[in-house]
Amino acid sequence: MSNKKQLRIGLVGTGFMGRTHSNGYNRVGNFFPELQVQPVLKAVCARSEDKVKVFAEQWGYESVETDWKKLVARNDIDAIDICTPNDTHAEIAIAAAAAGKMILCEKPLSRTLAEGQHMVDAIKKANVANTVWYNYRRLPAVTLAKQIVASGKLGRIFHYRANFLQDWTISADLPQGGTGLWRLDSDVAGSGVTGDLLAHCIDTAMWLNGGIKDVSAMTETFIKDRVHQLTGKVQKVGIDDACLFHCHFENGSLGLFESTRYARGHKALYTFEINGEHASIRWDLHDLNRLEYFDHKDDSIVRGWRSIHVTDGDQPYMDKWWVPGLGIGYEHSFVHQVADFLKSLETGQPCSPTFQEALETQKVCEAVINSANSRSWKDTGVDWKG
Ligand SMILES: NC(=O)c1ccc[n+]([C@@H]2O[C@H](COP(=O)([O-])OP(=O)(O)OC[C@H]3O[C@@H](n4cnc5c(N)ncnc54)[C@H](O)[C@@H]3O)[C@@H](O)[C@H]2O)c1
Predict the structure, then answer these.
(1) Cβ(294)–Cβ(308) under 8 Å?
(2) Cis peptide preceding 108, ω within 30 of 0
(3) Which atom of ligand 1 is nearest to the CA of 134?
(4) Model pLDDT, residue 2
(5) How far apart are CA 377 and CA 148, in angstroms?
(6) How far is CA 66 from CA 227, 242, 373, in A?
(7) Nearest atom of ligand 1 to the alpha carbon of 45
(8) In angstroms, rounded to a whole number, what is the distance separating the alpha carbons of residues 87 and 6?
(9) Among candidates 114, 115, 76, 113, which has minimal Cα distance to 92?
(10) Which ligand 1 atom minimizes the distance to the CA of 136?
(11) CA 185 to ligand 1 center in whole angstroms
(12) Which of 106, 196, 198, 333 is the pocket-test mutation for ligand 1 (most atoms within 8 Å of CB)?
């Protein structure tokens, strides 16, 4: 019997993220044995009783609920993990905070800035531990990029460039709304690629390169009308299918961002590149264990882009896994976020990104949409402290 402190999890939503988070809770103790807090899969919630029972059995949850309000009201739950579509984040988080629960919320924090602000107000009032699952930060190569930038090796930063490209909504026959397709319904998702994909790019960008001051954006909705899965009627599509924006960072560098679900051949091509005075780095989700690095200070006869295989024990998180040379995967970023959240409970330090930091990303998303709609530059109002 372990004498570790327990963190009793109540998870809402049994889709894609419900699985990645459950895997994280299940694995973390095996690979981070030093942690003094251990997650316990107390309850999982989904609306279909049959499905939630199957999920609970598969992932090891002790009990099930079919109404998140009952989950939030339970005395044997310490933390609520929100893995449901974007339109539910605010209501669940605000209720969970009022009940004194810690909250781990999926990104984007909210559909709109105003909704996100209510969430931040609620967690501040309740003074509960919180984090938002911008998990890409916790891939070892991305964390290494952060360390390299922080070391000053790049010198003054001139450019930050990021893409997140997919191709899964090109067919005009694809309906919008309902199971699996809520991302195409603006009432549920809030926005299209801006909140779904660019939010990741913006979070990573501000974490690596500081606050984004102002933006100029364009968006496009290529398929204007789609059948709604729930009503069966053809309805106007309200999301942005593609979004491009450029921006100024507070440090004087220029940013260029592109996201689309219409880049035929690309499934989840998240890339970023940073160009500094002395050195540059670039990263590609499709080759996630590698970080590319160019250092102009290298001796000219060997100078060139080097491809760092981020698998050595002295590189971020990698002492927790196998032996040098062996890579890890997408799912490990969630294990790392669970580990960092548990560690934050031991140290009392916030687990970044907090709701407040995720709100800063919402400010950029909102400015991007407003800029595209008004065809003008918009200040973001970001106050980045991360
Ligand atoms: N961090 C990441 O990289 C990442 C990746 C994918 C999705 N997400 C985010 O995670 C969230 C969920 O996305 P997903 O891909 O897992 O979606 P999904 O459609 O696969 O799963 C959503 C789940 O929520 C359930 N659900 C919906 N409303 C509910 C309610 N009222 N009560 C209980 N359960 C309810 C659905 O039945 C489903 O099981 C979204 O906010 C999304 O933006 C983040």
Answers:
(1) no
(2) yes
(3) 1
(4) 81
(5) 31
(6) 28, 35, 39
(7) 33
(8) 30
(9) 115
(10) 3
(11) 14
(12) 106
Mind listing the pLDDT tens digit for each residue in 82-110? 999 999 999 999 999 999 999 999 999 99
Question: Peptide bond preceding 85: is omega within 30 degrees of 0, i.e. cis?
Answer: no
Q: Please, which residues bridge with residue 275 across strands?
A: 159, 280
How many other C-beta atoms can be found within 10 angstroms of the C-beta atom of residue 114? 11
pLDDT for the residue 109: 98
CB 169 within 8 A of CB 176: no
3-state secondary structure (DSSP) of residue 17: helix
SS3 label, residue 290: strand
Please indicate whether residue 337, judged by its CB atom, sits closer than 6 Å to ligand 1: no
Residue 68 CB less than 6 A away from ligand 1: yes
- pLDDT value at 1 more than 90: no
DSSP letters spanning 306-338: EEEE--STTSTTGGGSSSTT----TTHHHHHHH
CA distance 251 to 263: 31
Give just the sign of the alpha carbon dihedral 175, 178, 184, 187. positive
**What DSSP line would sit under 170-200, residue for residue?**
--TT--BSSTTTGGG-HHHHSSSHIIIIIHH
Q: What percent of the chain has pLDDT over 90?
A: 99
Burial (0-12, 13-18, 19+ Cβ within 10 Å), 63? middle
Distance separating alpha carbons of residues 201 and 163, to the nearest angstrom: 7
Tokens read off for 146: 């952060």
Nearest-CA neighbor of 96 among 76, 72, 117, 115?
A: 72
Task: For ligand 1, say whether the CB of 88 is within 6 Å of any of its atoms.
Answer: yes
Give the tens place of pLDDT for each residue, 206-234: 999 999 999 999 999 999 999 999 999 99
Q: What is the per-residue DSSP string for 203-228?
A: HHHHHHH--EEEEEEEEE-SS-EEEB
Distance 383 CA to ligand 1 centre (A): 29
Domains in the chain (CATH in brackets) are 5-135 (3.40.50.720), 137-379 (3.30.360.10)
Q: How many CA atoms lie within 13 A of 127 on its CB side?
A: 1
- Mean pLDDT score across all residues of the chain: 98
Q: Token pair 């990698």 is at which residue?
A: 318
